[in-house]
Specification:
The structure is a homodimer. The first copy, chain A, is mainly α. Chain A has a single domain (about 5-350), classed as Farnesyl Diphosphate Synthase, CATH 1.10.600.10. Chain A has helices at about 5-35, 40-50, 55-65, 70-95, 105-120, 125-150, 155-185, 190-215, 220-250, 250-255, 260-265, 270-275, 280-290, 295-310, 310-330, 340-350, and strands at about 100, 105. Chain A has a two-stranded antiparallel sheet. In chain A, a hairpin with a 2-residue loop joins strand 1 and strand 2. In chain A, helix 1 (about 5-35) crosses helix 4. The longest helix of chain A is centred in the middle third of the chain and has 31 residues, at about 155-185. The two termini of chain A are about 15 Å apart. The interface between A and B is large, with 60 and 60 residues.
């Protein structure tokens, strides 16, 4: 995200404050079980503090687009999405055996290091994984709790809860399809796009917008369709940008080493497009490196060269442009106030812009 | 649990029906993402179908004890606890690297085998672990959804939700303390008992009873205290029985191989008691086998002999008897109807009885 985006800065600050207040309340519950839980809470808090607040931002503007007023309670409800997202990332990093998240050691690595440094018994990696599974679970469970405790009226929460329920089931379903696609290895660009729809487009943009709208009032079919028309293509464009950044980006910006997706064997749309266009020799280069946990800089550079040479990089940039255009066309026809339209335009550009 | 326990049989049937209905509704959501999700749903459903329904039973009787009528909606709300519990067990088995659960291969092992049998790419164990993390997450997320969709009035759900929230945070906190205790290896019988309080006693008995009571009506201090007075010692006795069964029990009854706790390096109260009473030689036997993933029948028999010889087995049986007596004394003073008192007496005995 572009950190200079004005509307996002304000949301970030308020969402950050709501999260800090919620975590301070949970501190007391954890301490009642034992002081030994505090390092775990600190690790979660640190990770949460470095989030981009993209899903809360879409939830907030979804609310405003449905006529909701600017009030602190919506920020607390929207902030709950950061707990869900951080919990999902902690579990993702275990599944992908990632070393790094948001520019720091992944949570499971951090606790494995703590185990090793303390000279504890048993497997340090096992301790790291166990801790990450439990802390991810805690954040998933806290999502609903924070959402309900936002201070919005009970009928608003009750109206919106099915959207949150559906969003969670969809994102986990999308992640499972992703895992299955990596394993079965028969991912085409089309099937990779279906994974992206569930894992990213609905989860990051469409559902947060609709969640905000459901908090603001009874369902408005035209608005809900407009949010889908904007959210689904934009979400796909966002994931395509993420794929490109993961393959070609600057680790200082992404917070992840270049080539991590490749190391994890992720069949991204970018990679599936390259494979569909590759010669036998080019495909062999990708095949040799995809899923190799020891992949180094030279190997990453070879795959980068193939992706560029096949035209897949250009093709994905073209898709991003087309999807963003589709999203903005749907937005221009949406029944929302001008300041909402303007903020969602700004968010669309910030979420998908090149960073080079 | 004793399968002939009459009140539990009826609850089992109704809870099972409520769970089957909920899972059938989720099937449609999952199919909208992809048919490939159906084997995952079937695996979860199979595991859920074999649950003992202990937490729903305490929730139901907690409701009845607070004056709630016998109606199907309370069964659906109580049944949600089985989703939470099954999700937690799936994650536990990953953390403990257990092969077996409820008499069948653990979920992560089952999906690892599916990967291997299909000749898929990448690590079969990685696929099994990833699937188990995601499906456990799904069940944790579905807990709230099923609880809210029970059909009980919104104000009843709203009143009870903080109990469910607290219960989840406490059980995860207890599991983390357990993991830390295994790693740091400085578990005394007293610190093991604190883990048991959070991980088992509150989670299995005290909070489910209080959850049922909160669904039935506004908090009644005397009842809430009586449920704690019954639930905490009974929950500890239940865990002590589980420790003994895990060490000396029949796998056909427990659904887990004998010695699994030992292999996972779990410092149970039983083991901590044995260590506190052991001679240097006896302690060395335990130390040699504790946390050894390759522990065999002969090694398990050596540890069994030490536990018996130190008097720890007798001491734990004595503690179980004392805790059950404390629980029943609290129950006899509880402001509940005679049929509730009688059902809770029956449950206390069923949950802690010897099985030899």
């Amino acid at each position: 995200m572009n950190p200079s985006s004005a509307c996002l800065d304000l949301i970030r600050e308020q969402v950050g404050r709501a999260l800090a207040e919620f975590l301070a309340r949970q501190r007391d519950v954890l301490v009642s079980a034992g002081e030994e839980l505090l390092p775990a809470l600190d690790a979660m808090s640190g990770l949460i503090a470095r989030g981009k607040r993209l899903r809360p931002a879409f939830c907030y503007w979804g609310w405003r687009g449905a006529g909701g007023e600017d009030r602190p309670e919506i920020m607390a409800a929207a902030a709950a999405l950061e707990l869900l997202h951080t919990g999902a990332l902690i579990h993702d990093d275990v599944m992908d055996a990632s070393d790094t998240r948001r520019g720091q050691p992944a949570l499971h690595r951090r606790f494995a290091a703590r185990h090793a440094d303390s000279g504890w018994r048993g497997s340090a990696d096992g301790f790291g994984t166990g801790t990450a599974i439990l802390l991810g679970d805690l954040l998933l469970c806290w999502t609903d709790e924070m959402f309900r405790a936002s201070g919005l009226p009970p009928e608003a929460i009750r109206r919106a809860q099915p959207v949150l329920d559906r969003m969670r089931t969809e994102v986990i379903a999308g992640q499972y399809l992703d895992l299955l696609g990596q394993a079965a290895g028969n991912e085409t660009a089309a099937s990779a796009l279906r994974v992206v729809e569930f894992k990213t487009a609905k989860y990051t943009i469409e559902r947060p917008l609709q969640l905000g709208a459901a908090l603001a009032g009874p369902e408005d079919d035209a608005l809900s369709r407009a949010y889908s028309g904007y959210g689904l293509p934009l979400g796909t464009a966002f994931q395509l940008r993420d794929d490109i950044l993961g393959m070609f980006g600057n680790p200082a910006q992404t917070g992840k080493p270049t080539g991590d997706d490749l190391r994890a064997g992720k069949r991204t749309v970018l990679l599936a497009t390259a494979l569909a266009r590759a010669t036998t020799e080019q495909a062999a280069v990708i095949d040799r490196h995809l899923g190799d946990p020891m992949l180094d800089e030279a190997g990453t550079a070879e795959v980068q060269a193939v992706i560029a040479a096949t035209g897949a990089l250009t093709e994905c940039e073209r898709m991003i442009d087309a999807k963003v255009r589709d999203a903005l066309a749907a937005l221009s026809a949406a029944p929302v106030a001008p300041e909402v339209s303007s903020a969602l335009t700004e968010l669309a550009i910030a979420a998908t812009a090149r960073r080079d």
